[in-house]
Amino acid sequence: MSISIAVALLSGRSRVITAHPDSTVDDLRLQAQLSLKVGLERLVTETGVILQGKSTLRASHVQSGATLTAHVRQSQLVSSALAFALLRSDGTVVSWGNAVDGGDSSAVQDELKDVNQIQSTLHAFAAIRSDGSVVAWGKMDDGGLVPSAVGAELVNEIQGTENCFAAIRGDGGVVTWGNGDFAPDGPTAEELLQDVQQQVPTSTIGSDGSVVTWGRPLSSEG
């Protein structure tokens, strides 16, 4: 049996979408995206709960007659040293400029769909898709290659420095990749970088208010 759900934009424009209770939230979001003809980043319940994309409507307690608020995906333009990447409102990404610095994204173009966020280092770009997966391109040593260990993680946020990326996982831990001189290393760093709520380049803020920083130490010479 199908259920009917109203999906509304903050502008007030809405559409009623018919879906099966065992469909995922992402399935519903994509249906609403096509109907409303605008890129949608997430769906939020009337009580302010952000629905998880991979969860089913049944598991998310979304019932027929419910009204969900849709957050429109915003366009985003970022740059590396000699290239640009543009996240369009439909979730696709286009890049141009020096190929070595990420201007050529043709090798991963098929993966650059349903993207919510992009970030850059000096020579690479990284994108988070709605399903929490990460796509990167550009100079491999500076973040252009996502390690398999990172690729298996669900990521909520990415920040970039000159030469590496840091991402907050869904469980609050942090993963990094790129130039090792600019990333945390060792078991002590792994223990400290847990339950992270927010990050800025080369530092994180934990849920208890503690701050952890890392990166290349300043030289005492000259």
UniProtKB/TrEMBL annotation:
<protein>
    <submittedName>
        <fullName>E3 ubiquitin-protein ligase HERC2</fullName>
    </submittedName>
</protein>
<dbReference type="InterPro" id="IPR000626">
    <property type="entry name" value="Ubiquitin-like_dom"/>
</dbReference>
<dbReference type="InterPro" id="IPR029071">
    <property type="entry name" value="Ubiquitin-like_domsf"/>
</dbReference>
<dbReference type="InterPro" id="IPR009091">
    <property type="entry name" value="RCC1/BLIP-II"/>
</dbReference>
<feature type="domain" description="Ubiquitin-like">
    <location>
        <begin position="3"/>
        <end position="74"/>
    </location>
</feature>
<feature type="region of interest" description="Disordered">
    <location>
        <begin position="202"/>
        <end position="222"/>
    </location>
</feature>
